[in-house]
Each structure stands twice: as C-alpha cells, then as structure tokens.
Amino acid sequence: MTFSLRGKVLDIDLTAGKAREITIPEADYRAFLGGSGVAAKWFYDTGKMQCSPLAPEAPLFVMTGLLTGVNVPTACKASFCGRSPATGIWSESTVGGRWPSALRSCGFDGMIISGCSAEPVYLYLCEDKVELREAGYLWGKDVYATQEAIGEEVEDENLRVAAIGPAGERQVLIAGIIIDGHDARAAGRGGMGAVMGSKRLKAIAVSKGKKTPKPYDPDALARARREAVPRIREKTRGLTDYGTAGGVPVVEKLGDLPIRNWTGGSWTEGAARTSGQAIMENVGVGHYACYRCPIRCGKEVQVTKGPYAGTEAHGPEYETAAGFGAHLLNDDLHTIVSANDLCNRLGLDTMSTASVIAFAMELYEHGLIRAEDAGGLELNWGNGEAILVLVEQIGNREGIGEILSQGVRRAAAHFGPPAAEFAVETKGLEYAFHDPRAFTSMALVYATGNRGACHLEGLTYFSENRAFPPELMGLEPEYDPHGFQGKPLLAKTMQDYMGTFNALGLCKFLIRGHVTPGEVSDWVKACTGWAMDAPELLTAGERIFNLKRLINTGLGISRKDDMLPPRLLVHDRVEGAAGGSLPHLGKMLWEYYRLRGWSPEGIPTAERLEQLGLPNR
User: Fold this and answer.
1) H or E stretch including 468?
2) Would you give the end-to-end CA distance of the chain in angstroms?
C-alpha cells in the first residue's frame, strides 16, 4: 500500500497477556476506508457478534481513520467499536483530540482487544512497541488522576492517554472513555468504557512516534488545504469563539432544544444563561484545538462548585450544556460546568447521564420516585445539588445511581410500565439533544441510526437550516422543516456521507465549513493515490452503513425497532417554533427503505448487498 503503514493492527489477548501484529488488506481499506468502517468489516468477519458485550471473548476494536494524523483538516479521529453493553447492538464511539494521531504515529492503524486480564493493566505503545503494565495502583482513580499517574511513570511530555474512570471499572452501562486528561475529549456513547472495565483495562497510553503515513501527493494535498482552510475558518467562526455550546440560543429559537425531558416548547432566557457565550464570559479561561483542526472549538473553563472548585477543565459542549441545562430546567451555569467535570473525571457519557437524570426527575414529579427512594434527595427540576449528587451516584453505582447507571431503558423497566412513558430512547440509546419535531428528517436519522438515537449518523438538521446547504449534495435547496416531502432522500444521502467521516478520521463539523464529497475525495486521492471520486466515496459510505445494518439485523433489529418513543412521535410541544409539529415517520420510512433497497421489514435485500459487494448471509 502506497500510503498506509501496511494496514498494521495489534491483536491483543488480555487473558494470555500477548499481542501480535495482523495486516488489513488494502482492498478492505478501499471498500470500507478505515476507522469504524474497517472495524465493522472485521467484526462481521470474526463471527463474534453474538458474544455478550461484557464477555472476555467480545472484541473491542480501536481504529484510527484512514487519514488520521495526516495534514488534512480535522484528521484527528479514532473509533472505539464493538457490541454495546447498553443497547446490545453495533456501537461506535468516535473521539478526536490528540491521542488518535499519537497512536497512528507509533506505526499502528489500530488494535483489536479481547480477553480479560487477571489483574488491572494498562497498555503502553511506543514506536512499534507494546507493553502490558500493571495498573492495580490506578484502579479506583479518576480519569485525570490516571493520566497524571501514568505520566509520572512514563515521563514523556508527548504522552497521550485514553482512560476509563470509576464508572468504567464498575461497568456502568453509560460509561465512556476519556482521552487527553483535563482536555477531556470523550468516546462517550454506547458504554464502551464498561467494555474496557470488563477487561480490566484501565488505560491505553501512547508516546508519540514518527511513523505517521506520508501522503502520496503532498503538493496536491497542500493545494487542497490552502483552498479549504480559509473557508472552513470563516464558516465556523462561531465554534471558534464560543464552542459548540454557542449554538444553544439559536437551537432554542428553532424549537430544536430539549426542554424538561422533551416536554417544554421554549426557554429563551435560560438558553441565554447556559450558552457558550455565557460560559466564555463567566467561566471561560482559554481555547484549544484537536490535532490538525483549524476550527479550534475546544474551550477551557474554571470549575466553580464542588470539591474541585478552582480547577481548570474542559468546557461543556452543546450536548452537555443542553443536557444539564434546558433538559433539566437548570439555568445555573456553574452546576453545568461542575456536572461536566464530574462526568469527565468519572468517565461518564454526559448525554446519557443527563438523559437518565431528566427521566428520574420526571418520575419524581409524577410520584413514581419518592425522596426516600433517592436517599432523601428532592429530585425537583433545576435542583443543582441533586444533579451533582446523582452524577456521582451514577458513576459509582451507589444509591439510586445503581438503577440509573444502566440507562433509561433498563431504569424504566425497573420502575414499572408507567415509567416507559417518560423514557426517551431508541434501540436502547438515549437521544442526542436535537428535536425531530423541529427538523423532521431527524426522525428518520434517529429511527434508523445503527447505534440508536444518534444525531451524528445524519446531521440532516444542518441541511434543513442551511448551515450545510443541501444543494452541495445535489439535493433540493429548501425543505419544510415540519413536513415530510424529500426527507427520506435527504436522510439517506447525509447518512451515506456522514458514514465516511468516522471511517476517514475526520470531524463532522467540516460540513459547517461547506466541505463536499468531491473535496473529501480529492483529499483521499492526494493521500492514497487512489482514483476515488465523489460517487465512489458516497458508495463506500453506503456500503459501511449497510454493513452495520447487517450486523444489527443479525442481532434481531428490524422495522419494529426503527421507531421513535411516544414522547417525540405523538406528543406536541404546543409552544415554541416546533409547536404543532409531529414527524410523519410511517410515511417517510417506507420511502426510505425503498431508497435503501431494503425490504418492508427493514432488512437489506440480497440484490442491494450484492450491488455493494457485501455478504448475503
């Protein structure tokens, strides 16, 4: 292979304490690009899809993208993939920062981790070298303390660490994997931190090497960067200034913000008080960027409440600000910042954590949870003290946190049938904080998402609100945000395009910079020498999406699961910009299946699988 480091991947058996190198064929890269695409291919081929997600034999795939670490805008991502312990189906949790590029620079495109160590360990990688090191002294430490302790042991200023906290150790099903310490980029969704914890793998530490792939045509790549970067910076200025949370007021105005567990319609003043603008004005202390990123959306803040008051930490992203803000009717900025910091230390997905707390607060409102059930906590909307206590209890599986730590679906089953009315999830994954009643194309994205209620698999609201004009994808320029016409084609097209990003190792905020498939295919060509054009790139995205669907249908997923919860399907928000809007999911889903070449039951047909070069079994 001209570009890749021979497709070299580490196959690590923690039970035996051994590692070996395997090589991924170039044909697999050409068909599935890298990252989560190649991980899905190898997961399907291993035949281990039926393994219980927390069983020793269940594989955890950690794969960098095809372009990760190369001088391509935002080429900084790695994906943690496998079967989710939270949902029981395909999961990929993708993270940026600087750890993925450090992994690639050591000469490895990724690793496949199986088995279970007899004692806690961490992996240490450096320039073609891999060591399993004793980590008993790290067990029980939070993510930041783990990073610092490994740093003291390794003594390398270029060291990067991906670690779990107490939540992952205790196999909390909404536990994530946190990288880069206080900068705290998170592979949060799907409970992959619990998978690491089940294997007694505390961390993966990487010393930066010198083996990042060199582009096939560096001059062509340099020209492409010079053309793209100024436009990306111009179009994403708001992200640079205020981070993703800067969008909270705009999202509220569009009726897209989740309010009071998806029941409220407007929250204008609260949105202003919990926005990225307010964060930077009141607690912001700096900015930072992921590797090779011209956007620089990362924000540094000072924690002002709780036992860590005075420390600097990663600033809340949009999903965290919305989740611990509007979703809980909490307009106290300091509680949001503290909750975010606690989640990062404990190793929790902020989105699922905020969702399960909102669920608990609504149960409390309706008398299905009493104060005595929550250790005396009054779970009133906006109660900042209760929010922070619940975060700690969830991360440590203590008190009512033992129940909530399993996610909304399992918690609803525990509290009985009436609780299901307040559980907002699809396929077991709690919703991202963009309302499908505001932009109805998102109803399809959530219903058919391969990892569950994931906005990142489609991001069609960016097209509906013209942050990424749909005509750049050859689609109609305007859509009725509350209608259903044209939405199936929009959803499919954007899912196919977004499916290439995790595989390539690119940040999806590139579409805010109006980066098109033609432009991305030019980057791939300059890096690999492949004559890949935009249609072939999108076909690769479609192939990847269908393979993940094939994995899920093997695990029992079909039309019956491509559904929204009642809260989002039949409950009107009444007020706000999305008042009166309900998604016509049934009408859209039939046309979507037709475009996909799936059966009316949502199963990929043999004909479409053959067209995409996928197995039919």
Assistant:
1) none
2) 30
Q: For position 5, what pLDDT does the model report?
A: 40
What residue has token string 């990062």? 344
The verdict on domain 8-207 having CATH code 3.60.9.10 is yes
With contact defined as beta carbons under 8 Å apart, do 109 and 193 qualify? no
Tokens read off for 307:
């036992």
426: nearest Cα among 554, 557, 613: 557
pLDDT score at 549: 98
The pLDDT of residue 1:
44
Identify the segments of the chain with pLDDT beneath 70: 1-6, 617
Surface-to-core class of residue 367, CB atoms within 10 Å of its CB (0-12 exposed, 13-18 middle, 19+ buried): exposed
pTM higher than 0.90: yes
Question: Rounded to the nearest 5 degrees, what angle is found at the Cα of 254, between the Cα atoms of 251 and 74?
Answer: 40
CATH 1.10.10.920 fits 218-423, yes or no: no
pLDDT of residue 294: 94
Closest CA to 565 of 428, 438, 434: 428
Whole-angstrom distance, CA of residue 383 vs CA of residue 360: 12
Helix (H, G, I), strand (E, B) or coil at 343: helix
269 by Cβ neighbours in 10 Å (0-12 / 13-18 / 19+) ranks as exposed
Specify the pLDDT at position 46: 87
Contacts of 401 (CB under 8 A, 6+ apart): 390, 392, 393, 394, 395
Two tokens, residue 160? 């990067």
Please return the burial class of 229, using the count of CB atoms within 10 Å of its CB with bins 0-12, 13-18 and 19+. Answer: middle
Q: Give the DSSP letter string of 555-573.
A: TT-SGGGS---HHHHT---
> In which element (H, E) is residue 53 found?
none
CA distance 13 to 27: 26
SS3 307: coil
CA–CA–CA angle 492, 239, 234 (5° rounding): 90
Q: Which two tokens stand for residue 171?
A: 């196999």
Residue type (1 letter), 266? S
Residue 98 is given by DSSP the state S
**What's the one-letter identity of residue 505?**
G
Please give the structure tokens belonging to residue 121. Answer: 């360990």
Contact 71, 266 (CB under 8 A): no
Cβ contact 204:19 at 8 Å: no
Q: How far apart are CA 402 and CA 548, in angstroms?
A: 31
Instruction: Walk across the sheet containing 121-126 and list its strands.
Output: 129-134, 121-126, 201-207, 159-163, 177-179, 185-187
Q: Where are the domains of the chain?
A: 8-207, 218-423, 441-612
Query: Counting Cβ atoms within 10 Å, is residue 47 exposed (0-12), middle (13-18) or buried (19+)?
Result: exposed
Residue 161, strand partner residues: 205
Assign a CATH topology to domain 441-612.
1.10.599
